[in-house]
Amino acid sequence: MRLSLTSRLSVLSALLPALMVMLVVYIGATSWTAWMSLTNSRMLPNNNFVGFRQYQLLFSNDRWLTSVHNIVVYGVLFVSLALLIGFLLAVAIDQRVRAEDTIRSIYLYPYSMSFVVTGLVWQWLLNPTLGVQYVLRSWGFAGASFDWIVRPETAIYCLVIAGVWQASGLVMAIMLAGLRGIDDEIWKAARVDGLPKWRVYISIIIPMMGASFATAAVLLSTAVVRLYDLSVSMTNGGPGIASEVPAKFVMDHLFERANIGLATAAATTMLVTVIAVVAPYLYWRARKGEVR
Amino acid sequence: MSAITLGAVRPRFRPRRISPARWGLYAFILITALYFLLPLYVMIVTSLKPMAEIRQGHLLALPASPSLAAWVKAWTSACTGLTCEGIRTGFFNSLRILLPSVVISIVVGSLTGYALSLWRVRGANILFGAMMIVAFIPYQVFIYPLVRVFSFTGLGQSLATIVTIHTIFGLPTMTLLFRNYFASLPVELFKAARIDGAGFYQIYARIMMPMATPMIVVAVILQTTGIWNDFILGLVFAGRDNLPMTVQLNNIVNSTQGERAYNVDMAATLLTALLPLVIYFGSGRWFVRGIAAGAVKG
Q: Residue B223 and residue B98: Cα distance in Å, rounded?
């Protein structure tokens, strides 16, 4: 049906905020950031074009290389552990256990808390003189040692522990929905065939849950790219620069080190990486015909 | 998204007797549940102990004589750098940020979703698709240009700025939520209203929004927890006088000189986590629905 002029104006006015956000914030800000990364802007933006020099500087910067290394380690461990634990929790709950609602609430409540809170809590728990190490020693394990958070080689694993604690419940919720969506006939057929339960899960159920795994993995991955609060509150990037992450690198160089050129080069690198990962996923979803 | 029906279907069969595998299952559930509960337990007991007891005592021990002194101190007189006014300033700042942000982002998001779902607008799918893509892009790409834009418009760092920012970054999820909901309603309803001569905003306000109550509940939960838990946007855009609770908490805990008052720190942390926890335990399945709806963007 054709729209009258007033209707059209109404529709346009309703879509104005979205259009503005799209043009000014997303397209405008992104191109500006990309352009700044090609200049030698320091404290204030300027337009002195220097080609890709900021990128050369970036990839010879120790702190950035540490950040990238850390985010890869964190990303791989966080996503795989959260998927594994979340899936196991969902399978456990799906065995028709008692007090299902309570158990589910316990697994999921950390997800309602902020990364700042998560980081601070785990900072205390992992503190060697106060936390888990102290408890183990007081229980008689005199040689027990759990001082990962104060050692540069292992600090990043502490972020993984905290992150997994916070996010596994989310994976559990997604996986449980996936498991409950599986047809009972499949279970009956498997039981008739005498397959043990674990075989059914590995050979039949997991392959059927591709969509749940993909949704959870993508959600977790976006959290990886945004990883900032946790590093700030838990270790503040330390000890030294041992647990620095890319998002923190950008923020510090924008607001503390007054190096806009380098910061925007880092931000643009993050953007390109995200697009390289997300584009195939969105294409895959579009191909599957999900209109979302 | 199938996740919407989270846990709605009852599981399929109950085993006849308690087998060893069953014991293993309950052991697994018990151990994992303890792992998830441990941090909350430690926070609560530590916040109720005096410092002397924390220094000598055991992390897991119950407080000998529970006291709320640390909670009072955290609320009224904990120090962030130079000022010692407690975390309550952050609490009220977060509240002042939260209320307008939630209302405005839901109004704008629902209106956008409504226009994109029921009104055949040219390019609607392109706009919507683009919005979904940018939901993935890290904030770091936008932050500095936005700082410049807001200082150029004279808003600088202020309450109005942070509310606008939350509306902007909430827009993709809110639009998605309402677009999918409105698209699932019977289209005859919309057509009948059109034939009766109702206009764009009349249909929105009189018919669509009253029908969207469940989605509004989900959106409020999603936005409230998201905005309350935000750290980076508040840090950059709210300005010194409006710093949200999360930022203030981090300042209280991580800028302490000398010995840390762990009991006060943990009380402050609990106070910051309180609102999302209340919403979570109070809203039950609604929270899960909110996650599922937000998860669709992923």
A: 9
